Amino acid sequence: MGIPLLDLKAQYLELKDELDAATHDVMSNAAFIGGPKVKAIEEAIAAYCGTEYAVACANGTDALFLIMAGLGITRGDEVITTPFTFFATVEAIRHVGAVPVFVDIEPGTYNMDVAQIEAVITDKTRAIMPVHIFGQCVDMDPLLEIAERHDLVVVEDACQAIGATYKGKRAGSLAKAAAFSFFPSKNLGCAGDGGIITTDDAELAARCRKLAQHGTSKKYYHDEFGTNSRLDSLQAAILLVKLPHLDSWNGQRAAGAAIYGELLADLAELELPVAREYGDSVYHLYIVKTETPEVAARIMAAMGEAGIGTALYYPLALHEQEAMEKLPNWVRPSLPVAESCNNSTFALPCFPGITREQIEEVVAVVKGALA
């Protein structure tokens, strides 16, 4: 049967009776848009993350966009972020007309290098958007200190990091606002697209909610142009079933990561992920790096032949993407750490329920490819 990169079928079977009942309840009541399930997941996520408010929306990309729009970030503004993440991060910045400004990343964590932020701040900089990549929080205290000193707003892209902690606080509660994704492969995933915004700012929460509903807070009365970004009740019902299991699932991911760390420690050819002491990673992905793309390709080919799931994360850094070349006056920065990851960083299976025997099988294939 092989070993998948993520076993969503097993997760469904684990909760089949509860999930089937929850979706049947929504269908039988025909409450598809809004309603008690959506309100309940908003309240549950706010409580889980430790924020005053949560605003559900259609997906994680919209969550980032709505925050940007809600903050009034607009054309000509600059937003500092990372070049090593999914493209949605820069899409959200561009959709409000702002310009992404990149800083390089740390080796090992793949998070943005906070020490490089101050050097790229200009009089156009409005915000910093750290991405808690692969489930580990960015070092937020020095980042927040820089932001305060320069009067900048900080928005967490926490789409891969629900449940991660930084000095005892959960991702999503560390800045002005945060965005989460409930894409099926996320640590807390629904059965399609879904997203949510967390914040302690009542005004921002209300504005994001209004923008997500066509710019209206009273039906058929619109005081600005918004968009249509709603979390379906079916997805909310699924998330409500899964949320109580999230901490256990994250713990199982961390346990799997620890086994990989033990079994791969003697491989000089692989750079293993670095875990910072300031918090707990939720290992959305367990990423390893090789010195060259050719070595990564050899290992991944061997995994494929053995029926083991894997994927590149990411084949090309954001500042090197073709779309960036279309920005006015774009000058590609030199970001050597991020560029060194191109086609060289890939995932090993590390999902809730993965067994030591499965991990040992993966490790044997990896070592065999390097022999």
Summarize the structure.
With 371 residues, the chain is α/β, with parallel strands linked by helices.
Characterize the structure shown.
There is one protein chain. With 371 residues, the chain is α/β, with parallel strands linked by helices. The protein folds into two domains: 8-244, Aspartate Aminotransferase, domain 2, CATH 3.40.640; 246-370, Aspartate Aminotransferase, domain 1, CATH 3.90.1150. It is built from twelve helices and twelve strands. The protein has helices at 8-14, 16-29, 36-49, 60-70, 88-95, 140-149, 202-211, 233-242, 246-264, 293-305, 336-340, 356-370; strands at residues 53-57, 78-81, 99-102, 125-128, 153-157, 165-166, 169-170, 177-181, 195-199, 270-271, 286-290, 345-348. Strand 2 (78-81), helix 5 and strand 3 form a beta-alpha-beta unit. The two termini are 25 Å apart.
How many separate helices? 12
Give the N-terminus to C-terminus distance in angstroms. 25 Å
* Low-pLDDT segments: none
Mean pLDDT: 97
Give the topology, please.
Elements lengths: L7 H7 L1 H14 L6 H14 L3 E5 L2 H11 L7 E4 L6 H8 L3 E4 L22 E4 L11 H10 L3 E5 L7 E2 L2 E2 L6 E5 L13 E5 L2 H10 L21 H10 L3 H19 L5 E2 L14 E5 L2 H13 L30 H5 L4 E4 L7 H15 L1
Parallel strand pairs: 2-3, 2-4, 4-5, 5-8
Antiparallel strand pairs: 1-9, 6-7, 8-9, 10-11, 11-12
